[in-house]
């Protein structure tokens, strides 16, 4: 499944538009506790444990979006975007990763 940020697929003809597909993933507060309890993991101003958790959350969200696109019969997602949201308040320090785009089919 091809996922592109562009509105078209260069050199390919889009044959069907299926509409919006999304994927979400939550990164819980326990990650913050684990991350900050091991501050020595910070290298060069970057926290590799936190980056790894964000990467996992992004991959889960992308996988969910791709699955929804496949269920519609698509073989690509165009106009894809990724957003990160801090869900404070009653959700604590939870981060939601959201991905969305337009499911399409194209000719090989």
Q: How far apart lie the N and C ends?
A: 12 Å
CATH fold descriptor: Translation Initiation Factor IF3
What structural class results from the helix and strand content?
alpha+beta
- Strand percentage lies at 35-45%
How helix-rich are the residues, as a percent range?
A: 25-40%
In round numbers, the mean pLDDT is: 85
Q: What is the CATH architecture annotation?
A: 2-Layer Sandwich
Radius of gyration: 17 Å
Shape: elongated
Query: How are the strands of the biggest sheet laid out side by side?
Result: 1-5-6-2
Order of helical and strand elements: EEHEEHEE
Full CATH superfamily name:
Hypothetical protein apc22750. Chain B
- Count of individual beta strands: 6
| Unreliable spans | none
Largest sheet report: 4 strands, mixed
- CATH level 1 name: Alpha Beta
Tell me the domain tally: 1
- Helix count from the secondary structure assignment: 2
Walk me through the structure.
This protein is of the alpha+beta class and 108 residues long. The chain has helices at residues 29-37, 48-71, and strands spanning 2-3, 14-27, 42-43, 46-47, 76-87, 94-106. The protein has one domain (2-106): Translation Initiation Factor IF3. It has two helices and six strands, in the order ββαββαββ. It has a four-stranded mixed sheet. β5 and β6 (94-106) form a beta hairpin.
Characteristic terms for this protein:
6 strands; two-stranded antiparallel ribbon; alpha+beta; single chain; Translation Initiation Factor IF3; 108 residues; four-stranded mixed β-sheet; elongated
